[in-house]
Amino acid sequence: MKGNNDMSSSSSSVAKVTHLLMAWSEGDQSALEMLTPLVHDELHRLAHHYMKGERSGHTLQTTALVNEAYVKLIDQKRVKFRNRAQFYALAGTLMRHILVDHARSRNYLKRGGGAQRLSLDKALTVCGDRDEGLVALDAALNRLTAIDARKSKVVELRFFGGLSVEEIAEALDLSSVTVMREWRMAKAWLYNSLNDT
Amino acid sequence: MTPDRWQQLDQLFHSALELDPEKRAGFLLEACAGDEALRQDLELLISAHEKAGSFIESPALEVEACELANEIASSDIAIGKTVSHYQVISLLGSGGMGDVYLAQDLVLNRPVALKLLPEYFTRERDRLRRFQQEARTASSLNHPNIITIYEIGHVDDQHFIALEFIDGETLRQNFLGKGRHPAAMPLRLLRALEIATQTADALAAAHEAHIIHRDIKPENIMLRRRDGYVKVLDFGLAKLTEGPVVDIEVTTRTLVQTSAGMVMGTASYMSPEQARGAKVDVRTDIWSLGVVLYEMVAGCVPFERSTPSEIIALILEREPPPLARFARDVPAELERIVSKALTKDTEGRYQTAKDLLIDLRRLRQRLEVEAAIRPMAEPQEKFDEQVTAGRQQETLVKEKTAAEETRDTSVTYPSSGAKYWLSRSKSHKYAGIVVGLLAVIVIGYGIHKLTRRSETALSFQSAKLTRLTTTGKATMVAISPDAKFVVHVMNDGGKRSLWTRQVATQRDIEIVPPAVVTYRGLTFSPDANYIYYSVSSKDAPQITLFQVSTLGGTPTKVLDNLDGDIDHVVSATVSFSPSGKQIAFLRKGLSKETALMIANTDGSGERQVTTYQPEDGIGFPKWSPDGERIAYAVLNYPTNKMTVAEVQVADGSRKPLTSQKWVRIFGLAWLSDGSGLLMIAGREQFVCQVWHLSLPAGEAHQLTNDLNDYVGMSLAPNADTLAVIKMEKQASIWIVRNNDMDHARPVTSGPKADDQVALSPDGNKIVYRTNASGASDIWIVNADGSKPQQLTANAGSNVGPAVSPDGRYILFLSDRTGVPHIWQMNIDGSNQKQLTHGNGEQRPQFSPDGRWVVYSTIAESSSMWRIPAAGGEPVQLTEKTAELPTVSPDGKLVACLYEADNAPVRIALVPLEGGRPLKTLDYGVPPAILRWTPDGRAIAYVDPRDGVSNIIAQPIDSGVVKQLTDFKADRIFSFDWSRDGSQLALSRGTQGSDVVLIKYIR
Description:
The complex is a heterodimer.
Chain A: H1 7-25, H2 29-51, H3 60-74, H4 84-113, H5 120-127, H6 134-147, H7 149-160, H8 165-172, H9 176-196
Helix pairs in contact in A: 1-2, 2-3, 2-4, 4-7, 4-8, 6-7, 6-9, 7-9, 8-9
Chain B: H1 3-18, H2 21-32, H3 36-52, H4 60-76, E1 82-83, E2 86-95, E3 98-105, E4 110-116, H5 119-122, H6 125-139, E5 149-155, E6 158-164, E7 168-170, H7 171-176, H8 189-208, E8 221-224, E9 230-232, H9 238-241, H10 248-257, H11 260-269, H12 272-276, H13 283-298, H14 308-317, H15 332-341, H16 353-373, H17 379-384, E10 412-415, E11 418-421, E12 440-442, E13 464-467, E14 474-479, E15 485-492, E16 495-502, E17 507-515, E18 518-524, E19 530-536, E20 543-549, E21 556-562, E22 565-566, E23 569-570, E24 575-576, E25 582-588, E26 594-600, E27 607-612, E28 616-623, E29 629-636, E30 641-648, E31 654-656, E32 664-670, E33 676-682, E34 689-694, E35 699-702, E36 709-716, E37 721-737, E38 745-746, E39 754-759, E40 765-770, E41 777-782, E42 789-790, E43 798-803, E44 809-814, E45 821-826, E46 833-834, E47 841-846, E48 852-857, E49 864-868, E50 875-876, E51 881-887, E52 893-899, E53 906-911, E54 919-921, E55 931-932, E56 938-943, E57 950-955, E58 962-963, E59 971-977, E60 983-999
Antiparallel strand pairs in B: 1-2, 2-3, 3-4, 4-6, 5-6, 7-8, 8-9, 10-11, 12-13, 13-60, 14-15, 15-16, 16-17, 18-19, 19-20, 20-21, 22-23, 24-25, 25-26, 26-27, 28-29, 29-30, 30-31, 32-33, 33-34, 34-35, 36-37, 37-38, 37-60, 39-40, 40-41, 41-42, 43-44, 44-45, 45-46, 47-48, 48-49, 49-50, 51-52, 52-53, ...
């Protein structure tokens, strides 16, 4: 449980994230150990926000909070990478890794523990539309990679990395139009794939 | 699916989507031309497209956060329920062992802490049985320092433990702050011992019952709110979480998979045998308690790294640094106790908690007795002053080479931690004081530093500045409370005189004639009729306080033997009580302690208010407007940091007024309503400026943000007028080619300070810092003086440029983020990027191969580091204090100013890889800048002798010091060579100090 961080510590944590991301990109696995809790902190912060009464789901404020979390975690402006594209790609992969892991361990505990299960109503009222589990999505995305790696990458960058279409275009050296096309098809394919099985 | 087919699918999918929905079916039929499988796939995809809606449109972070929220919500459903005869009221906390709730025992009608075990922990019947057995044994423990277990039970599959409810906080929350960075909470030594003693007592009782805790850490030590009593939690519970893991990797991974914050903590408190995964016994708890005790005293854990595996490596291999490194006055006995508890070999450790308990108790009793005998210097008071952040920094340069008289009224001052002497400017030829308000300037005054200012903070935004003197020789100032008179000390070639200016009539009167004395303090009496000044001289080194009429006359001696010289900053001002009947001043005691005294204005009725031990210097005592307190500046010599504190006149109790620290404070004054203080203070390498310290918040805000140094001040609070001594610098860039001094010529000109210079390796471009734009920025100019161009703008202060060996990049220092960090930009100023992210860095220099940037840190203690120029993790090069790094032309050595423990500061040559100095050199005068000579055989620096600066070179092997330049006037602020040594760029100019009045609007 964390106390209220002051301004200075949050700015230094951004610096830390950048360092860690770079270390991770160079193969330092311990950097991941350090990054994971930072992402978890953001998850908890957001989760508590949802619980505090943002019952209607995707309000502007919520969107802002999520954006803020992404900025905090992967603010490209502070990055000293030679090209930002490399960083974008890295951030997407990293977020996918951590979030899927988080979902996986959470599901595991739930399954294993059989803790008091939550009524579906509650889930809906708290968060609006209930999306497919991240774990299943991750698996589907792996299948998509085998067929069309670029589409899979677009989804990774947008959905997991929280990047805008323009940023994805920059990262993959594509036009925004192409990115949107890839996204549309990938989304349909994934939706189909997840509801099929 | 073949790539071709997939591509076909992709194309047709998008083509279909472009059509109106009702036309799609027909289109598909036609386009697929009988390929029914393709058509079906497309139908599916299009239908999926239409149904998908918001699917994966919200970012995954949000999706996962929602899931998590659901899960937390699900745990909330316990609230309001009744488990057995316990009604759950609220969640107290969560841990690896499940959630803990506050609940009401409906039978005994008392509050309990109810721990609900998650089912996945209890489904392993075997482990559960073991756990229950142990918890039952633990529940048999009856000890005041162990939390009482009321009941262990289950309802169906819901296992629970009902515990004594403690209204309090954990040791982590209460003392050590949260997270892995313990706040700078003052922790009293006696209290730390008390907590450790009670914990040891609990352990002794448990161990006697053969119960090992296994997880002693600050999170498991509760302090009861009511009386601070220690209650140790979770006895015997740790075992449940313990798997059959043996190797470190698995241990680490297991740890990482649980909540990360806890993991770090847990690894830090592990005993070596736990870290190895070996069998543990009661001695593991002794180790962990040793770690907790260490942390309470030092403010950090003994084995601290960023990842569990690194921590474990340290636990297994390293000895912890001695406590004395982190806190002063650590009793030797405490070092011994901690060291014995933290002995890696279990046989060398305390064998029983009882032995540890006895030693702790004995030490605490001894300290209590000592504290009672020495009420003025009780150990806990000293602990309040402790700096948490580790390494001690000795005052970097304590040169005694200067004669007493050069330790003048505020003209000795430090820059970037190293002190150097500002010579008396000889460029100002004015014999006397030019009468008249020469410059009346109303400007937007230093507003861009005030972004985080609170609403009540004072602002100099529309302040009116009036220059009172133009001699460049004013060294100390006082203003009368009504702002009608200003008195200042003028230093003309070491002879100092005292002058009164009647502000309205612009009349100047010499009230004390020139003499070879040093003024130590200057104050008006509240009625403005008298000036109280203190002086000393070579012949009479004792500081004596005199009183003289504001309009001149014969001075009268008031008091003898004052103190007031904190590390060359003169501070022996006296301060009047609001009634005007008493004065506060400083005296040095027999054992070098500084005493803050009060007395009647005639010197009678002297009384001591408080004293500081020799490791702290205090200065600038200032009586508060309500008369109850006296504020003053404190310099902690070991850390070389200053802050502001106050003492109650009535009972001598004192407290810090702010948690902020500065490297220098040059003056203090209360605002009339007591809402804060104005001060002249300087942080790190940036110059001293006017600050506002608002009270009681203790927040400090910089009011001025210009490029000059302020070195003295006096406030007329009711007239909203501040008199300051402002040092102004004029400097331009000069080029000397092929050592031809006769043709040395300026490249830049104008009334500004171009005072830091770097030369591109080919010598064609000069990069420099200037205040030409009104802010401190980096500029570039061709070596022939053509095409000056500003590279940084509107982004804080930018200083200290260095050019990369390939001439393509510039390193510089910028405080645009609020903290001075090293930044890099292209030679044309584009692509400005932050390179370091520490607590403050300075003096960046490239290695000759351009791969590394070497720099020193400015936070807490200056150490030397390097970081890849392309960005990456910094590597520490020196453990000791080291500053002003410069890399040798062959890239092998870094020359720096270096201070080993208690050894004088020397120039040291340290390998670029880091480590101990290979060689150290003496120097003549404390350098403010170091450079290798281009041949790599000497270290060059500025010799400012007699106010005329020249560059001298000190050979690194044998040989004599050689003077490289032959200037006859002015000072040199900075210099740099081209790679081949054919060109030398210098920043040369003058520096003077004058009295300026600042009339501000509140």
